[in-house]
Amino acid sequence: MLKVRKVVIPVAGLGTRVLPASKAIPKEMMPVVDKPVIQHVVEEAVAAGIKEIILVTRSGKSSIEDHFDSHYELEAELARKNKTALLAAIQQIIPPDVSIIAIRQAQAKGLGHAVHCAASVINDEPFAVILPDVLVNNVSAENNDLARMVAEFETSAAAQIMVGEVPVEKVQSYGIADCDGVMPAAGGSTPIKGLVEKPAQQDAPSNLAVIGRYILPARVMELLADGQPGAGGEIQLTDAIDSLLAEQTVAAYKMTGDTYDCGEKLGYLKANIAYGLQHAETAEGLKEFIASLA
Ligand code: G1P
After folding, report:
1. Residue from 145, 143, 137 nearest 275 by CA
2. Residue 48 included in any domain
3. Is 230 within the bounds of a domain?
4. Which residues pair with 99 in a beta bridge?
5. Cα-based angle 134, 104, 36 (whole degrees, multiple of 5)
6. Residue 58, in any domain of the structure
7. What CA–CA distances, in Å, run from 134 to 2, 79, 158, 204, 221?
8. CA of 213 to the centre of ligand 1 (A)
9. Is residue 1 part of a domain?
10. What is the pLDDT of residues 200-240, one digit of tens each?
11. Whose CA, among 118, 242, 284, 287, lies 20 to 30 Å from 198?
12. Which of 174, 235, 242, 262 has most ligand 1 atoms within 8 Å of CB, for mutation?
């Protein structure tokens, strides 16, 4: 049986949509409540059974790797002061059976190029891709879109691309799926006929947008190796998946959770409010604050 054990998380972007906040710190290290965005998505991957996390990174972003490393001085200090809960929180960021490695993307040639940088580590295994700008707010053992996508792939061997509906005037910001007029039910999958990156509104085959979660066979790495610049002059993951469609079934998986685009200001603020309303330490106070504003 095909097991999905690896995830590629591209983190080499410059974060221009959240400048100046992301000038000296990676946008992936900006906190949503008490964890950086990257920790939220790594936890999502771990909850879906992923054991190897492959970060595709660049210079100036080593704080992402540091976050998942041990911090001896801090740990010793917390232990000395008997701050056991905090000590556990920083020691248990990832379980001991999960490993994280980082690979450099030396040139910014697009998402497809970034994913291909991990080809030698993926080898001939299927893999997940998580775009860390997008937070999916449903991480729990019973309710995890990525876990459902993994299960669907492991049963059917068909690649799974997470999609959600977007307003038609926003289609040019996304990869858009042609599902032959079929609208998959939330939590369900349907075959994709074609995939196009950032189409003009009049050319979009639907309003079903790719939302930053993918389960892909190793074959995609070979298709990316031959990748030609597409939309925006960049090597696009969407184009490689569109080529894969000609060879095998690729399915659109319709998400059930709420998503927040933390790569832009409004999405980032919404994520903080949504997650803040779920956090034991902040929920009550934040609820009162929001009520006082209204
Ligand atoms: C990327 C993908 C696009 C996808 C989007 C949101 O675009 O290329 O297909 O719809 O993420 O997950 P970007 O936002 O990096 O321009």
Report:
1. 137
2. yes
3. yes
4. 52
5. 35
6. yes
7. 26, 35, 23, 22, 23
8. 10
9. no
10. 999 999 999 999 999 999 999 999 998 889 999 999 999 99
11. 118
12. 174
Give the count of domains, the chain: 1
CATH code of the domain in which 222 resides: 3.90.550.10
| Domain span including residue 282 | 6-293
CB 259 less than 6 A from any atom of ligand 1? no
Quote the tokens at residue 220: 């995609």
CA distances from 224 to 108, 139, 180, 229 (A): 15, 30, 25, 11
The ligand 1 atom nearest the CA atom of 197: 9
What length is written for the chain? 294
Lookup: tokens for 219:
């074959």
Write out the two tokens for 228.
Answer: 């030609």
Q: Is the CB of 214 under 6 A from ligand 1?
A: no
The rounded Å distance from CA 209 to ligand 1 centre is 9
Helices 283-293, 265-276: axis angle to 10 degrees equals 120
What does the DSSP 8-state code read for residue 52? E
